[in-house]
Amino acid sequence: MINDQALAEIRGRVLRELLSASERQASVLLLGQGGKTALLREAERTLKKRFFSHYLDLRKVHTPPELFSLQIAGLACAWSLSLEPQSPFDEFLRKHKEKLDPALKEAADLILSELEKVKPDQKRLIQTAFSMLEELAKKHKRFFLALDNADRLLDLDNFPKVGDIFSLLPRNITFLISSSVDALKPRLQGFTTITLEPLTKEETSKLVERLAGKQAQKVVDEIISLSSGNAHVVEVLCSGLKQSKDVKTAFLKELVWRHGRLYQHCDSVYSKAMARARGKSLLHSIMLILSKEDLKLSELARKLYRSAPVTKSLVERLAGLVEKRDKVFIVKDPLLREWLRLSEHWSDSEPEQLEVAR
Known about the structure:
Layout: H1 4-10, H2 12-23, E1 28-32, H3 36-48, E2 52-57, H4 65-81, H5 89-96, H6 102-114, H7 122-140, E3 143-148, E4 174-179, E5 192-196, H8 201-212, H9 217-227, H10 231-239, H11 247-256, H12 261-275, H13 280-292, H14 297-304, H15 308-316, E6 322-325, E7 328-331, H16 334-341, H17 350-357
Parallel strand pairs: 1-4, 1-5, 2-3, 3-4
Antiparallel strand pairs: 6-7
Helix pairs in contact: 1-2, 1-3, 2-3, 4-5, 4-6, 4-7, 6-7, 8-9, 8-10, 9-10, 11-12, 11-17, 13-16, 14-15
C-alpha cells in the first residue's frame, strides 16, 4: 500500500496549490477522487510543523446533531489539552473540563447540560461545539482544520432545526475540506475550489513503479488504460501483479465480485450519491442505461418512456454522477460506468466471477 507522502509527491502540483491557498488563509475545498485523503493528510502534516492544525475524517464522526456536537466538543477538549480523544465523549468531557480555559469549560458545561433535556436544542448544541473550536483559533491565532470526506456533513440536512450546517462553521479557522460530492461546492461560497483531476499517464507510470517496481511496458499501459487515472484502481491492480500479470482479468475480478475492492469502492460511492436522491428507481435506470451508451436527452427520454422535461429534471438530480458533454449525457466516473455496465455479472461467488472475467 502506498503511503500518503509518496502519493502526495506524485501529486506535487496539487499539494503545492493546496498549501499555497491555505497559507494565504483561504479555506479550500478539494474536490474529486483518487488521492484526496493522502493530499489532505500530507498538507495538514506540513502545516502542523508551523501552525496549530488537526486532521479529522468525518466518516468517523456521528451526524445526529446531539452526538455530532458532543464529539466535536470532545475533540476540542482533547486538542486544547494535548490529549488523545476517547469515547464516550460525555465521560471524556466530564473528566477533563475542569482543566480547560474558562470559555471552553463554560461551553462544555452548556453542552452537557443541554443534552440532559428531553428535547435538546440541536442548533444551539452545534453552535456551542463550534464555539469551542473558535476559542482554540483565538488562542493559537492560526488554526488549520482538515476535514476529510466532508460530504458526511450533508447528513445534517436531515435535521431541519439545525439549518445550514455550513453557515455555522467558525469564521476564524482556515479549513481544508475534501469531498467527492459536487453538491458541496455551492454550499461553500468563498472557499477556493481545487479539483483533483485524474492522474496523467506519466503520474500513473510513476505510481505503478512506486507500488510494484519496474514492470513491462505492456503491463503499465494496461493499468493506465483500465485505471483512467484513478489512484485507488492503480493501487488495487498493482497489488495483484505478484500473482498474475493478467491485468484485465484482475480488474474484472475486483469489479464484479461483491467482495472485490473495486466493487466495494463503487458500491460505496454510488450508494452515498443515491442516498440523497429522490425517485431512486428511475435514477438507477438512467445510470444503467448511460453506462452502456452516451445519449442525447431525447434518446434517453425515449428509453425511459418519459417526456424530455421530466427526463431532464431526473438527470439534474444526478449532478456529480452524470454530466453533459458534447450534447450527450455520460456517466462522469469511468470506473463507476464500467461497474454499472457489468451489473448483470455482479456475483457473490468468486468462481462464477472468474469465469466472467475470462
